[in-house]
Structure formats: C-alpha cells, structure tokens
Amino acid sequence: MSNVIQVGMADLKYANSPNKIRTSGLGSCVGLIIYDEREKKCGMAHIMLPESSLARNGVLHRPKYADTAIEDLVKRFVDEGSPVYRLKAKIAGGAQMFNFSSTNEVMRIGPRNAEAVKVLLEEYKIKLISEDVGGNSGRTIEFNPDNSILQIKTINKGIKEI
Amino acid sequence: MNYLERIQAPHLDILKEVGNIGAGHAATALSKMLNKSIDMAVPSVKIVHLSEVSEFVGGDEMVVAAIFLRLQGDAPGNMFFMLPLEEATRLIQQVTDDYTISSGNLTENEIGMSALCELGNILAGSYLSALSDFTSLNLQPTPPALAIDMAMAILSHGLIEVSKAGDYAIVIDTKISDKDDTTQSKGHFFLLPDPESFKIIFHSLGVKIDE
C-alpha cells in the first residue's frame, strides 16, 4: 500500500518509497524536495519566506523559511546516515501570482524565495537536478521517491514531469 | 506577547461586524448591477493555521477567479474577492451580455477579463468604503489585480505579510450568493488585516485590547 503524504503551507514532511509526497497550491511559495536516490527517501518543505531574519517575533516556525527548512532537512538526512554528497534537490514554485507594476518587495516574494533556495543549495553543495520556478501560475507538485520524478500540475498547462 | 493571544470573543464579534457591514454594502452594489436579489451569509471570523489554509478555501486545487487589492492607509491589509471559476463566468456572461464566453476561454477574452476586474473593483470598493466609514479610518485600495488560479496559491500571496509575524491568520470571510441560484456556489470576501492593523481597528471602534 502506498500513501500520499500531504505537506501543508509552511510545513515540512518526509516520505519513503513506496509512499509519495505532495503539496498543493504553491503560489509565491517554493516547494523544495531533497532526496537520497539510493535509499529512496525524500523530504519536502513548503517554504513561504526567503530567510528567518524576516520573522518579527518570538518562536520560529522553522519550515516556513528557506534557511531553516534546508538546515533541518539536511540534518535529518545526515542523522539517518545519508551523506550530504549523495543528496539531490528539485524545486518548483516561486511564481508571481499577480501582475503589479509596483516594485514592492512583497510582490516580488516568489522570485526571491526561489533565488534564496538556490543559493542555499549551492552553499550546502547539494546538486539541484531540476527546477520549475517563476511564471505566474500556481502549482501542485507530487514527488515519487521511488523514481525521483517530480510531477507538476498547473491549471492551464496541464501536467509535466521534471 | 503574540497579538493573537490577546484576541477574545468580543474582538471576534467586532470583526464579524466589520465583515457584515463591508459585505452588506458590496452585496447591495452587486444586486443593483445585476438587478437581482443577492443573499449574504453571516460572516465567519476564523483563526486559521497556515497549514490548514488549503482545507479552508475548499479543497487544495479549487480553481477560482480572484480580485486582489492591497489596502493602504491607517490599517494596512489584503483583501480578496473570490468566485469559483464557473460562477465568475456566469456573472461575466450576464454583465457583458456575451454568452460565448466560457470558463475555458475567459482568460483570452479581454472584455470579459476587464469586466471581471472592474466588477471586483466595485465590490471590493464598496466593502472598503463601508469599512472606512464604520471605523473612521483612512483606507485606500491599490488598483485591483486579477488572477484565475488555484485558490490556495492565490490566498497564500495575501498571507506573506501575516506569515512574518506568526503562523496563524485571522480571516474575515463573508459569503454572498445569488438568490435564485440552485447550485449554491458562492463568492467570498476575504479580509486579511496585517497583524499590526488589528489594534488600530479595535481602537478606532473603542474596544480595548490588553497589552
């Protein structure tokens, strides 16, 4: 029996084959999948903001920010015996849902999220295998750790796999 | 201390009234435009965790037409008027008197999209001016932006500002529906004040919020 594990907004979860993992309605948020192909394990984070320094008060909800989400993902894999060099990543999301002429930083949050995730992956030396970022459509994504295929659904472009 | 911990039942009632007055005016505007009776439900005010937003908007891949306005002025926030795509199409057919428009070709129909944007602008505008009168706060909307996409992807855009301050959003949701509509599909107004705005709204209505 295989299940599909749902990742909510600002959430982080893990899945092992034969289970799949998905998150829906990615707008300016970025879905980050880090996986270990050999062990057929993966983790997915639904990231809302590029860095935890943007948080305004108190306790950090770590999966919400790119930097803390990656840190937690990597730590978990390393703790479970997957060396960092074997980890790979795929990302999707970071769209600009509304077209404003304004250069307001909130309006540009999608591209900033995607950029932040890519920079961090480079810092951790995790190979980014494929990406589907930007544009202005919402995405629902599903990752299968068994074959490492990421399926991306948008409302007007159908389904694609990366 | 987190602002949400200070919000109690009376505060939620006030926010309900805010939704009631705003959407009441918007429903009247829509009713005049279509020359039809429009029903309005009692507003609901919910404190929703970010990870539960998808259930809240009615399924994670529900496709909607949404008009988004950013509020500026005394109490900044975000406002959405959302309609299921089918419903938006029907509304646009009535407004433009063009029945060749379908949910499949709406996005390519310039007149239809423009009418939808204007419709949202009128509705959101009447919501806001009622709100502004009620609270005597100065509130100005940005020009409207239109998107047709997954409800959650759209709503998440309005939650970015909120998410910097915490993991919960206060959503003031009011449903309106066509009286002779049997399908019961509804339009939603979502008002998402920025976290700092709650205190200002309560203060302007003479309600204290404990520090």
TrEMBL record, chain A:
Domain of life: Bacteria
Gene3D superfamilies in alphabetical order: 3.30.1330.200
Enzyme class: hydrolase
Catalytic activity annotation: L-glutaminyl-[protein] + H2O = L-glutamyl-[protein] + NH4(+)
Stored InterPro entries: CheD-like_sf, Chemorcpt_Glu_NH3ase_CheD, Cytotoxic_necrot_fac-like_cat
E.C. designation(s): 3.5.1.44
Cross-referenced Pfam families: CheD (PF03975)
Keywords assigned by UniProt, alphabetized: Chemotaxis, Hydrolase
Role description: Probably deamidates glutamine residues to glutamate on methyl-accepting chemotaxis receptors (MCPs), playing an important role in chemotaxis.
UniProt similarity note: Belongs to the CheD family.
Record-given protein name: Probable chemoreceptor glutamine deamidase CheD
Organism from which the protein derives: Evansella alkalicola
Gene assigned in the entry: cheD
UniProtKB/TrEMBL annotation, chain B:
Superkingdom of origin organism: Bacteria
Keywords: Chemotaxis, Hydrolase
Pfam families xref list: CheC
Gene3D superfamilies named in the record: CheC-like
Occurrences of domain CheC-like protein (ranges): 11-47, 111-146
SUPFAM superfamilies referenced in this protein's UniProt entry, alphabetically: CheC-like
Name listed for the protein in its UniProt record: Chemotaxis protein CheC
